[in-house]
Design goal:
The structure is a homodimer.
Chain A: H1 4-22, H2 26-36, E1 40-41, H3 42-49, H4 53-65, E2 69-74, E3 77-82, H5 85-101, H6 103-113, H7 124-133, E4 137-140, H8 144-149, E5 156-157, H9 160-163, E6 176-179, H10 187-197, E7 202-204, H11 209-214
Parallel strand pairs in A: 4-5, 4-6, 6-7
Antiparallel strand pairs in A: 1-3, 2-3
Helix pairs in contact in A: 2-3, 2-4, 3-4
Chain A binds a DNA duplex through α4.
Chain lengths: 228, 228
DNA sequence: TGACTATTCAATAATTCGATTGAACAATTG
DNA sequence: CAATTGTTCAATCGAATTATTGAATAGTCA
């Protein structure tokens, strides 16, 4: 009593579940999120996600088995990257669904960000529009490598670690919008706090490059200049 | 050595993983797919997905715990439904990603549909355009309840089971486009086969109502006429 | 070539997950 | 009220996952 029809359906949904399974471990989602910012070595991924290298490697291979990431040996290191833009879009969809449906996420966020984000809730769409229109100075506060791998067109790269010493590069009168890896990354929040304290008009944008890309908008990359 | 920052990230990704976990079992994805077509009772879901009722109920509760579906008691039955349109969009994204990245899906599909789908690969976007423009007669060959729960505007409801006896209702000269639950559903394929044999000009559209909705297009519903 | 490094593999133990079964519960019907 | 029906709960077992550890592999660099 196992019709061909049933076999077919089982096979199809089993394939779909490969994607779900790959997305079912918190640490794998963290790795995916990081990879959405740009390619990285196993070691870098392990460090940033607080995993042992062996453990990170294992998770990465699960992701690779699900065809979500690709690996390429580059010199001494193996570099992992998203297999496809579509993977980023999927991640955005998953994150958006979680945000929309799981109220726990908002609680967690509030508990952590608490008062520091005294930032009035900015109208996300309106802010995006102004960023696109070039009406504000856009700051990418992620590490430079991530900026190089892809950033919002026109954005300046000022990693959070260098921000304090590079304040003079920024306009006092024009509004500044800072972004980082996405809604659950704190770099842009810290940047805005610092900027405001120093008298700048600054806002945080929750969206990151993945979100930008997912909307079908162009992303700028800086080709790595290979030193002779 | 567990910074607040790390705790925060762990908590966030753990939440995201709830969605992934819920989507990690083939049978749950099948249930989701069915629910994308419209609300259903536990029994109906169990039947259509070849699960025992107890088993289906268990899976449904996992989905509910992840806030992907809602349950409502309706008389003697409990009716499950998608918790939100967004869930449908997520399912479409997951299915699309699987289709794009997992070549195995195409193999499985070909192996099953094989020659029967001697159907030339239709340009999906072009077909959608013509359907939207009303340039063709659109046939919804799913069971009536699903048609009622939501269908493509202007579509005629002709369940596959009734198609043979209702051929006279259809135009001989105008092109007919049949759709069903989606790309992995065979009802529309069977419909097109029959229609062609009977001399109609018929094509299959892979997209279903979820896909339609995911594009932000309007879906028509038929309010259930309550019999006195 | 030989030391070194980044990554992966293999084995283990702890945990979680899924299907199955039969009982429990709740609402309806006669 | 008792019988019926639809759904959920609880317990069990086998399978699959995860983190951990230490060893193996395959490259690089001097």
């Amino acid at each position: 009593m196992l019709t061909p029809h049933r076999r077919f359906k089982d096979a199809i949904y089993e394939q779909l579940a490969r994607i779900g399974k790959a997305s079912s471990a918190p640490k794998r989602l963290e790795l995916l999120d990081l990879l959405c910012q740009g390619p990285r070595t196993v070691e870098a991924l392990a460090n940033e996600s607080a995993l042992s290298v062996a453990n990170a490697s294992q998770h990465l291979q699960v992701l690779r088995a699900a065809r979500l990431v690709d690996a390429e040996k580059k010199g001494l290191y193996v570099e992992y990257r998203l297999a496809d833009e579509e993977v980023g879009h999927f991640f955005v969809a998953l994150r958006g669904l979680a945000q929309a449906r799981l109220t726990e996420i908002e609680s967690v966020r509030r508990a952590y960000l608490a008062e520091r984000e005294g930032m009035e809730p900015v109208q996300a769409d309106e802010l995006l529009r102004r960023v696109r229109a070039g009406e504000v100075t856009v700051l990418d506060v992620r590490p430079v490598e991530e900026y190089r791998a892809g950033h919002i067109p026109g954005a300046l790269s000022v990693p959070i670690s260098e921000l304090r010493s590079r304040l003079r590069e920024l306009p006092k009168n024009r509004e500044i919008v800072a972004y980082c890896r996405g809604p659950y990354c704190v770099m842009a929040i810290e940047a805005v706090e610092l900027l405001r304290k120093k008298g700048f008009r600054a806002k945080r944008m929750e969206a990151g490059v993945v979100d930008w890309r997912a909307r079908g908008w162009r992303v700028e990359t800086t080709s790595q200049a290979a030193p002779a």
